[in-house]
Design goal:
The chain contains six helices and seven strands; from the N terminus they run E-H-E-H-E-H-E-E-E-H-H-E-H. With about 200 residues, the chain is of the alpha/beta class. The protein has a single domain, classed as 3-Layer(aba) Sandwich (Rossmann fold), CATH 3.40.50.360. The chain has a five-stranded parallel sheet, sandwiched between helices. A two-stranded antiparallel ribbon has the order 4-5. Helix 1 links the parallel strand 1 and strand 2. The longest helix has 15 residues.
Length: about 200
């Protein structure tokens, strides 16, 4: 059975990005998938110390972080999934700080011993999971990939957790009112993306 885990980098529930995630998960459930949604703001995830201890041991297994916090549980749930949804509103031209904090902690998926200055190398090049990437912004959707770093950050996070994007949803002109609803057309597109994950 397909299992889809969504990682939500929004600071609040019910916003446009969160509604889009709900629609993706609904589409996945319609095709028989089990789903779960994780709000990063509700997890105890410390900032990366850049100590690189998790990158020192060679091998395919994710390196162990020195922090003993909520990240391990989140990553175990992601690793048990067949697909992921990675979502963040755009704040100051990139993903939110809470999503960035999560993303930086994914460095344990790489091997980067001291003395090797070429940068981190993925422990596994396999991308066995599917991914849908979602970003919302106040600018028109066309400008999200052109003028923000959010799409690249979401793609990097997907690669780190062994996922290959099969769809993306850039939602523009969001946040024009406090309790904005996802447009019907965008909701339908999100549901179609979710069906692809199941």
């Amino acid at each position: 059975m397909a299992r889809v885990v969504a990682i939500v980098g929004s600071y609040r529930r019910g916003g446009i990005a969160d509604q889009a995630v709900d629609a993706v998960l609904e589409g996945a459930r319609e095709n028989g998938a089990a789903t779960e949604k994780i709000y990063l703001i509700e997890q105890q995830i410390e900032f990366c110390r850049n100590c690189r201890m998790c990158t020192q041991e060679k091998g395919p297994a994710r390196g162990e972080c020195v922090h003993q916090d909520g990240l391990e549980s989140v990553l175990q749930r992601v690793e048990s999934a067949t697909a992921v949804v990675l979502s963040s509103p755009v704040n100051y031209y990139n993903v939110t700080a809470v999503f960035r904090r999560f993303m930086e902690r994914l460095i344990g998926y790489t091997y980067w011993p001291w003395g090797k200055n070429l940068g981190p190398v993925m422990r596994s090049k396999l991308r066995t999971r599917k991914a849908v990437l979602i970003a919302s912004a106040a600018v028109p959707a066309l400008f999200i990939p052109l003028s923000t770093g959010a799409p690249r950050a979401l793609k990097v996070a997907a690669r780190m957790v062994g996922a290959k994007p099969v769809g993306k949803l850039w939602i523009g002109m969001a946040g024009s009112q406090p309790d904005e609803l996802l447009r019907a057309r965008t909701r339908m597109k999100a549901m179609r993306l979710g069906r692809r994950l199941a």
